[in-house]
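Quick one:
INPUT:
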């Protein structure tokens, strides 16, 4: 029996041999190595994905680390290897539900590759340079921009492309030489949508356009207008929503169409993305009192989860998000650098809305 004056011991303490290299300091890899009976470098390798360590040895190291409460110093590791396995993801547009789909797919693919994510909700154009500077101070391997408020000024600034190892625009094209774009081929995608709209017999389209930024850009409006003019010799009607916001799209469609005589209404609304298409459908039904697709058909772009629900059943274009996320990981890990990064091809998803 323990003497009354003996201090109480926890179960965890009883399991850990008193063999700490420095009992008064923080737990180190040397302490784990001593307990596991391996070298310090074996401990370091055991915490790296795909390192040349047997499963038996890795299990011994992990057991000793758990007993001691040891976690590796990621900052020290990044200083030694010049890689942090950390990527900053800057997002500026959470009104668009597709952003959550992107984030889920992107972070899942990166996590499987051993890359962690620093998520930054940028607060508009003015905040983007500060966010990029903060990312560079955290030694990230790349900064990924997902959004619309990243213009030429930001992409050219020393706080952006020249301070971050890699500056990647995801799901948008950029002609800026200091950036890498990973995106779907908008020309191929819009040709698919245009051909479908024409094949279904629609002839009076209204195109709902999103933000028109210089560098972080999609080419859906320009492509649709050019293809329609090429086919019919007339320019389709365009309404600028200005943001990927269903509430704003609802307002624009209502204001644009409310006072029109029925014969002058469009027979199809082609929206630049699903968020606007959903807002447009709500406006057509609840403000104009019309049916979809009986009176006005509607198409979107992205295939967000809500698009496939019975209430919307939206005809849309699905981007290959997993394939694009895998390409991003390859770029971060210096395994890919080809021009096909801007030529991913998705799939038209026909549903009852058109």
């Amino acid at each position: 029996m323990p003497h009354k004056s003996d201090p109480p011991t926890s179960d965890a303490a009883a399991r850990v041999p008193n063999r700490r290299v420095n009992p008064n300091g923080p737990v180190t890899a040397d302490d784990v190595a001593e307990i596991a009976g391996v070298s310090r470098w074996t401990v370091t390798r055991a915490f790296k994905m795909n390192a040349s360590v047997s499963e038996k040895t890795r299990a011994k190291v992990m057991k000793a680390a758990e007993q001691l409460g040891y976690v590796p110093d990621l900052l020290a590791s990044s200083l030694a290897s010049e890689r942090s396995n950390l990527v900053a993801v800057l997002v500026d547009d959470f009104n668009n539900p597709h952003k959550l789909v992107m984030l889920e797919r992107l972070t899942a693919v990166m996590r499987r590759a051993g890359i962690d994510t620093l998520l930054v909700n940028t607060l508009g154009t003015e905040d983007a340079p500060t966010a990029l500077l903060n990312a560079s101070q955290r030694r990230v391997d790349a900064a990924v921009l997902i959004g619309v408020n990243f213009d030429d000024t930001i992409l050219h600034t020393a706080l952006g492309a020249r301070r971050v190892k890699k500056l990647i625009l995801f799901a948008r094209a950029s002609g800026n030489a200091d950036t890498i774009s990973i995106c779907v081929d908008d020309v191929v995608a819009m040709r698919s949508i245009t051909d479908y709209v024409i094949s279904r017999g629609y002839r009076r389209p209204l195109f709902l356009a999103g933000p028109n930024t210089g560098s972080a850009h999609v080419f859906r409006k320009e492509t649709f207008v050019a293809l329609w003019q090429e086919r019919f010799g007339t320019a389709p009607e365009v309404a600028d929503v200005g943001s990927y916001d269903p509430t704003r799209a609802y307002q624009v469609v209502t204001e644009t169409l409310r006072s029109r005589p029925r014969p002058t209404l469009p027979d199809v609304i082609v929206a630049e993305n699903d968020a606007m298409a959903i807002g447009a459908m709500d406006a057509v039904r609840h403000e104009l009192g019309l049916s979809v697709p009986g009176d006005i058909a509607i198409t979107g772009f992205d295939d967000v989860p809500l698009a496939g629900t019975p209430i919307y059943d939206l005809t849309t274009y699905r981007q290959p998000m997993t394939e694009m996320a895998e390409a991003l990981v390859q770029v971060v890990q210096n395994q890919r650098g080809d021009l096909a990064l801007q030529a991913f091809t998705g799939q038209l998803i026909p549903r009852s809305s058109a």
